[in-house]
């Protein structure tokens, strides 16, 4: 048994472009749907089309590069050869934007199911199911329904007819609250102003996750202010890893040239780049290569912190070993930050107060003025103790039971 999806991509906007290709936060609706479907186990997507413009072909090619098979279909007869007898088909409404939770619910094994919601002013863009319910944009059907539609004479709207067949067959109904449509968690994008509102709501609701005082208190708030600009163009996500990697290489080069303060300041910019990459991952379908690139850059930044005093010593005339207060305590600081990360990742669901933990961003932010004004040895001595204190405080607070 396999999971196959049938995604609508034939409805047009007033300006003549396809609704499925509207961009929300720099990513088309169709690409976001493909990612959600891949997350629940779909490996083959059939796209219900009336025409296949060049822009749709380019989008399909991008999806295929992520390892998902995409096949345009115009009628049920085109869909029948793609489906085996025991396959399940997930219907996705044209222009739908929904959360991964709803895709996972509709993809669970079992009999055919339909996501439904109340008939309110907020859900008028969805197909009516009965007097009090409307379609929530997702449904799970079986292969016999596709075969039945293929055998029906005349021309039928493939998506809506399959939905009606599921209703007539008594498919299970999974109810979702109309309030989710008010929050923008589920929506049908009928025009570009609606897409802009959904984008604004997504920026406000995105969860950053992760650990660290520097990132949580400084880096991410700054990135959030720039969020609307970052998500506007897909090119940002494409080129940001290269820019961030170059910034961290510049940190190493500046340190080996003796420009310690300049290197630390660029490291702060590099930290912003890593935070921006983490922020954009909430809006983009990341490939395995992109995920590895972020991990490699983050690891390189951590190693730079540990060896920063030795890099500075290379710029000296005698290439002498740096003072003990820097040479020994810089690795201690990096090790303490690594320990905090390991403890955080092993904490499972107990991840409260993550913003208390030390991180490399905090270290670089504090080191920059210390290197600029000449009290770096003192700062290298203080930072490991501060990082250890933060970790102990987090362990204490994270184990405290939540108030009931």
What does this structure look like?
The protein has 404 residues and is of the alpha/beta class. The protein has two domains: 3-199, Spore Coat Polysaccharide Biosynthesis Protein SpsA, Chain A, CATH 3.90.550.10; 207-399, Four Helix Bundle (Hemerythrin (Met), subunit A). The chain is built from 16 helices and eleven strands. It has helices at residues 29-39, 54-64, 76-79, 100-107, 143-150, 158-168, 179-182, 192-205, 213-230, 234-256, 260-280, 288-314, 324-327, 329-345, 360-373, 376-399; strands at residues 3-8, 23-24, 27-28, 44-48, 69-73, 88-92, 96-97, 113-118, 133-142, 172-175, 187-188. It has a seven-stranded mixed beta sheet, with helices on both faces. Strands 2-3 form a two-stranded antiparallel sheet. Strand 2 and strand 3 (27-28) form a beta hairpin. Helix 1 packs parallel to helix 2 and helix 11 (260-280) runs antiparallel to helix 12 (288-314). The two termini are 45 Å apart. The mean pLDDT is 86.
Quick overview:
With 404 residues, the protein is of the alpha/beta class.
Topology:
Layout (H helix, E strand, L loop, with lengths): L2 E6 L14 E2 L2 E2 H11 L4 E5 L5 H11 L4 E5 L2 H4 L8 E5 L3 E2 L2 H8 L5 E6 L14 E10 H8 L7 H11 L3 E4 L3 H4 L4 E2 L3 H14 L7 H18 L3 H23 L3 H21 L7 H27 L9 H4 L1 H17 L14 H14 L2 H24 L5
Parallel strand pairs: 1-4, 1-6, 4-5, 8-10
Antiparallel strand pairs: 2-3, 6-9, 7-11, 8-9
């Amino acid at each position: 048994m396999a999971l196959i999806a049938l995604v609508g991509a034939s409805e047009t906007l007033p300006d003549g472009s396809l609704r499925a290709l509207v961009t929300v936060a720099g990513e088309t609706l169709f690409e976001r749907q493909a990612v959600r479907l891949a997350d629940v186990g779909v490996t083959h997507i059939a796209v219900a089309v009336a025409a296949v413009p060049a822009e749709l072909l380019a989008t399909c090619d991008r999806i295929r590069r992520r390892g998902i098979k995409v096949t345009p279909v115009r009628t049920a007869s085109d869909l029948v050869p793609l489906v085996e007898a025991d396959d399940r088909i997930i219907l996705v409404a044209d222009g739908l934007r929904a959360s991964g939770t709803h895709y996972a619910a509709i993809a669970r094994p079992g009999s055919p199911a339909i996501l439904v919601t109340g008939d309110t002013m907020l859900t008028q863009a969805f197909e009516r199911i009965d007097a009090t319910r409307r379609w929530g944009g997702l449904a799970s059907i079986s292969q016999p329904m596709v075969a039945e539609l293929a055998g029906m004479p005349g021309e039928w709207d493939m998506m809506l007819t399959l939905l009606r067949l599921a209703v007539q067959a008594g498919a299970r109904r999974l109810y979702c609250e109309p309030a989710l449509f008010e929050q923008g968690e589920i929506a049908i994008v009928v025009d570009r102003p609606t897409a802009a509102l959904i984008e604004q709501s997504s920026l406000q609701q995105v969860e950053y996750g992760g650990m660290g005082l520097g990132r949580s208190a400084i880096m991410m708030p700054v990135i959030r202010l720039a969020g609307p600009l970052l998500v506007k163009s897909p090119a940002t996500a494409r080129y940001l890893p290269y820019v961030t990697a170059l910034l961290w290489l510049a940190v190493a080069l500046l340190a080996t040239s003796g420009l310690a303060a300049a290197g630390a300041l660029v490291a702060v910019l590099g930290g912003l780049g890593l935070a921006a990459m983490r922020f954009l991952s909430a809006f983009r379908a990341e490939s395995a290569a992109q995920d590895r690139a972020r991990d490699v850059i983050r690891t390189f930044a951590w190693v730079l912190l540990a060896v920063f005093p030795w890099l500075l010593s290379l710029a000296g005339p005698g290439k002498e070993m740096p003072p003990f207060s820097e040479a020994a305590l810089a690795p201690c600081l990096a090790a303490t930050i690594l320990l905090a990360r390991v403890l955080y990742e092993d904490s499972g669901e107990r991840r409260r107060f993550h913003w208390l933990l030390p991180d490399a961003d905090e270290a670089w932010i504090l080191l920059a003025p210390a290197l600029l004004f000449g009290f770096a040895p003192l700062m290298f001595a203080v930072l490991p103790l501060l990082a250890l204190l933060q970790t102990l405080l987090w362990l204490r607070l994270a184990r405290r039971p939540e108030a009931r």
